[in-house]
């Protein structure tokens, strides 16, 4: 746990009296906590000063890391406009810079829900720069406590709730210690779902699909989200629609009660057709994967007749512009979805085979992608014209020497389930 909801007092952490006395006893060794002392003195809060000692010398949390350049720190301390605080956080280029900036303002009364949301979203966007010291910093812990405070007051908007949910789940691998916050967010998500716009719904559904823990979401929540999606159908982008298809399929397979979305997917399919020209390869892959996951629960004929052919043609059209990463990651998903749906769109499956058949391309394929293509072109598309492609796939499997027939068979489950 990263801490419990608490009052908005600007204390960095309260300790029992005995701990405070022990901390004061080390008063001559305060140089290492200069930044915490400076913030405490700025707010003229004695408890904060004692807490700064305790944080550093009593081992409650790691001390804040890397103080910013003195000039920049002084300049930030002069900032009072909440909008400027938001700008400073959102323009930080690394996780350390985000936390250094937050640390300058988190103890002020002007630090609000927007700043908390901006910080989490920015951390998600620069998560490749997160280091262990960032995860354990006093500022990170304070930021989490600020979120818990606002959750306890039920004072987050629909946009802020959706953005924070998206950000935390996005950082699941980098900062798994944040995941206990997700169940705590659910009452807030439930409360504001009726106010969400298309982008919020898309982000929330994506986060539900990506999240690997049981968040305790109720069917009534998905009913509310589905009703909003129905009313806002024309406002969804092609990527937003793809997120809803993908999430509906993945969540249904896990037993999550997303059936309220089943009735609106045909409507979203019509919107997706209108947005086809702006559909990315990833959106096409996600949409087809979602449809294939729902094939036993909903009638996919309307998708197979209208949406799938249009997406297939768009993908073929985009092939010359695709980079290797798109080919390696998206083509196996598309091939698998078509195979599971038993849709033999010859121009597309020929294109996939032709582009992936070269040994150098197959060597760049991850194990799941290689297994998915092997299963798709063996069980799904057993046509004789793909015999050479099957030989190339088997040759690469033999070269790696770590892939079993069971792994090939299990690739139908998708990359996430396959890896677990």
What would your notes on this structure say?
This protein is an all-alpha fold and 420 residues long. 65% of the residues lie in helices and 0% in strands. It is built from 24 helices and no strands. Helix 10 runs parallel beside helix 12 (198-210), helix 12 runs parallel beside helix 14 and helix 16 packs antiparallel against helix 17 (301-318). The model is unreliable at 1-7 and 9-70 (pLDDT under 50).
Please describe the topology of this protein:
Elements: H1 17-24, H2 34-43, H3 46-57, H4 70-77, H5 82-90, H6 95-105, H7 113-125, H8 132-136, H9 138-152, H10 158-170, H11 181-192, H12 198-210, H13 219-231, H14 238-253, H15 265-274, H16 281-293, H17 301-318, H18 324-341, H19 346-356, H20 359-364, H21 367-380, H22 387-400, H23 405-410, H24 415-419
Radius of gyration over C-alpha positions, nearest whole angstrom = 26 Å
Low-confidence stretches: 1-7, 9-70
Gross morphology is: globular
Count of helical stretches:
24
Order of helices and strands: HHHHHHHHHHHHHHHHHHHHHHHH
Q: State the major sheet.
A: none
Proportion of β residues?
A: under 5%
Counting DSSP E segments of at least 2 residues, the number of strands comes to 0
Secondary-structure class = mainly alpha
User: N- to C-terminal separation?
Assistant: 25 Å
Mean pLDDT: 84
Helical proportion, percent range: 55-70%
